[in-house]
Write a structure and sequence with these properties.
Mean pLDDT: 80
Strand content: under 5%
Number of strands: 0
Number of helices: 17
Radius of gyration: 29 Å
Largest sheet: none
Number of domains: 2
Distance between the termini: 71 Å
Low-confidence stretches: 126-154, 275-290, 423-430
Order of helices and strands: HHHHHHHHHHHHHHHHH
Structural class: mainly alpha
Oligomer: single chain
Shape: elongated
Length: 430
């Protein structure tokens, strides 16, 4: 792949930009760094796989030097999928993500690819890095006459046959592993889309919609790249533009990097000992819980936890904090997050988001009925951080907008406090 002057400028700017992004991700102060480290490794790998093109463009490397560099750095493309996976996992995990023994299995694709490509390169001096996909750092190393070699299978020496099979296996591995991580990332995003309502009372700024869009765009690019690989192997009917390919890569790298720098950690790191162990039986302390430890939470303990939750609402008005989370409620009540979530979902039949908003709306109804404070100020006072969120939550709870509710109460001749109209938690749970 040879770039024109425009392509060379784009390529050089892209490398410098990624180096800056890596430095920012590693150096900026944050409550937790796991998500930033994952993406720093992603961009480092992306730069590393550009070494052959950089050597050819700016270093004056020979074709053999470019080919050798391509063989050595191509396997690193297999690390980008795990990097994106751990980035999303770190964003949606309340606890800091730390690599354990089982996580080393994510290196399997890299190691297998390394064995296949380096082994094939050692068996032949005919290896080259053809323009498959975006540029040579796409991680595809294949014999230039692979398909014709397969069709004339019996006319090849055993060495050439092994080389062809090894490189086609590497190509297949690249496609399968990358597709596998696309699926894993999409599953994580879908899981977070549901679970965030069990933890946060306000989801503004905690949505990963931007990343869902990027994954969608990258999926389209990935499918197009697969089609180009197939065309390169069988037909060679598409003559791609090197500058256009570099422009596409520059575009997605810039968008992804800016959004990654903008996206803060969604969950704050847990503080040791923040939740009391008094509600967790001693024999279960230190044991990783399943979704809900039903056997460990009897009726008596459940009622005691419900009492703590409702005192936090009625006496301390914890819901008035705009960014209150399940962890804040856990710290306040000295009950583990797992038990709080179980009680809210199974006994009070609401997730955390709906439960907090229920109390906010109940408070807002009282203020709308008893005071002349503006609607937007009432929304902020009871804990909402935007009027649109306040209106949506209020209508969901009461069937009316705040202004409609205020008008209705003012027109009511009997003047009853309308708080009674707001659904309370199930009586059987009290």
């Amino acid at each position: 792949m040879k770039l024109t002057l425009v392509g060379q400028i784009l390529f050089g700017a892209l490398i410098l930009h990624q180096a800056f992004v890596v430095a920012m991700l590693l150096a900026r102060p944050e409550p937790r760094k796991d998500h930033s480290i994952a993406m720093a490794v992603f961009f480092l790998v992306n730069m590393l796989t550009s070494v052959p093109l950089g050597g050819q463009t700016f270093g004056g490397w020979t074709d053999s030097g470019v080919a050798i560099a391509g063989v050595l750095v191509a396997p690193f493309i297999m690390l980008q999928g795990p990097c994106v996976y751990f980035y999303v996992l770190a964003l949606i995990s309340p606890a800091v993500v730390k690599l354990g023994r089982r996580d080393w299995r994510h290196l399997a694709g890299f190691l297998i690819y390394l064995v296949l490509t380096v082994g094939a390169a050692l068996l032949t001096n005919q290896m080259t890095m053809p323009d498959i996909g975006a540029h040579p750092d796409d991680g595809v190393v294949i014999h230039k006459n692979a398909m014709s070699g397969l069709m004339a299978y019996f006319g090849l020496s055993w060495i050439n046959t092994v080389v062809v099979i090894a490189n086609l296996s590497a190509l297949s591995l690249f496609i399968l592993v990358t597709s596998f991580y696309f699926v894993l990332v999409i599953r994580l995003l879908l899981r977070y889309r549901r679970s965030k309502f069990d933890y946060f009372s306000s989801i503004e700024g905690r949505s990963l919609t931007w990343f869902e869009w990027i994954i969608g765009v990258l999926s389209v690019i990935w499918i197009a790249n697969i089609l180009l690989i197939g065309d390169n192997l069988f037909l060679r009917s598409v003559m791609s533009s090197e500058d256009a390919e570099m422009l596409v890569e520059t575009a997605w790298v810039l968008i992804l990097s800016f959004m990654v720098l903008w996206q803060p950690a969604i969950f704050e790191p847990k503080r040791p000992g923040s939740a009391a162990i008094e509600d967790i039986p001693p024999e279960l302390a230190g044991v990783a819980p399943s979704k809900y430890q039903r056997s460990a939470l009897d009726q008596e303990r459940c009622l005691r936890i419900i009492g703590k939750i409702e005192r936090a609402m009625t006496e301390d008005r914890l819901y008035r904090s705009q960014n209150v989370t399940l962890r804040n409620l856990s710290d306040h009540t000295r009950v583990s997050e797992n038990y709080l979530s179980q009680v809210l979902n199974e006994y009070l039949e609401r997730n955390f988001y709906d439960y907090i908003n229920h109390w906010r709306i109940k408070d807002a109804c009282h203020l709308l009925h008893q005071s002349k404070t503006s609607i937007i100020d009432i929304g902020e006072e009871v804990g909402f951080n935007s009027r649109s969120t306040f209106n949506a939550a209020f209508k969901k709870e009461t069937g009316q907008t705040p202004s409609e509710y205020r008008s209705a109460t003012r027109n009511a001749a009997w003047g009853q406090d309308p708080r009674a109209d707001v659904t309370s938690p199930p009586a059987g749970a009290r």
